Amino acid sequence: xxxxxxxxxxxxxxLLVAYFRLNTFIAFLIVCLFMGLALNMVRVPAERMSIxxxxxxxxxxxxxxxGSLVIIIVFGSxxxxxxxxxxxxxRIANGLMHVFGRKYVQWSLMLTGFIVGIPLFYNIxxxxxxxxxxxxxxxTKLPTVYLGIPMLASLSVTHGYLxxxxxxTALVGTFHANMxxxxxxxxxxxxxxxxxxxPVFTRFLKHYTQEPAQLFTVAPMPEDQLPSMGTSIVAALLxxxxxxxxxxxxxxxxxxxxxxxxxxxxxxxxxxxxxAVLNGAxxxxxxxxxxxxxxxxxxxxxxxxxxxxxxIIGGSGALTQMLLDSKVSQVITDSLQGMHMxxxxxxxxIAALIRVSVGSATVAGLTxxxxxAPLVAGTSVHPSLMVLATGAGSLMFSHVNxxxxxxxxxxxxxxxxxxxxxxSVMETIVSVVGLIGCLILNLFI
Length: 445
Description:
transmembrane helix, cell membrane, Glcn_transporter, Gluconate transporter, 0% strand, transport, mainly alpha
């Protein structure tokens, strides 16, 4: 009966978010309360939770999940906003197009999306990068869909796979994975996913020649107002360089030595993101003559942009804690272990099912983690791969219940049918290839 309650609770979450359009954070809280009360109805008195214990579990879950995570998410949003608003993203795109030329312009946009997408929150990245695609399309006379899909595939993959994005960062904590190793393995899995969903897939999309919606065209910044190429790339990639570099350094240093302690400190995600934001504020703002008030204003806007996602992550933490405190997580673990399914495939499948039902990649990933996280301790599967498999599943088949689907449709001026054939297929490719990449990596680590 406990498993039936969990199933009904997840179904209720899907209905509240997808059908009734209720705020996702409120939906999580309602589902947590429903789950706690419903479990009390099917259990003996000794196993029941009091109302006070149920509400305390919700508060504990929100606090435990956010904790230092909120710092990383906010700093990541600040850095991404600085990269976009300063013109660093435009400089990276222009520089890569100059290097690759018109023949490989797709690859330049794909790399731009990947570099800029690491610190840039997905919805912000979408809105700020799409005008860049339109500018390049007008300059090269190539179809916007043909040019846009590779860049948006990069943005999608970084959003689903790689820290410091909110969902992967939260999954790292839930699965007790190492953030640096998750980033390294994520880069290995991300590259083939982006290439197959980008340049390879778009070879079949050259006939989509619709003009983009004029409402969304934005004039690029003058060339002389852009930061240098080196400054732009270092500012955008500093979190990656620090996380990956310190993780590799720790593998070479003996535990307890000075070098190990320094790399351990510099590799702490909070320190990494603080250093990246301070560096971005200086080199992309203050050093270029922007007043402090302007730079701080950009950062404050970033906080507003990411506030909703913070609440969603907190709500998912409440659900996870409810599963733990009610002892249902152990029941789920015992049942899933009896299925003899690869944990990576299981995590991907559950995340994909919730993603298709709810539409939100973040909700899909975090809800799945709460269900399958207890399995990791009893298996030999690397926690970082569980993060990546869950993230890959959370990107599966974006359709009409996902805001990204409608943004792509409107920006690129497509019909619903053509949006399914382009955007939805692209998201499916990055999801499936991500799972395959995790399964291959699992053979070696």
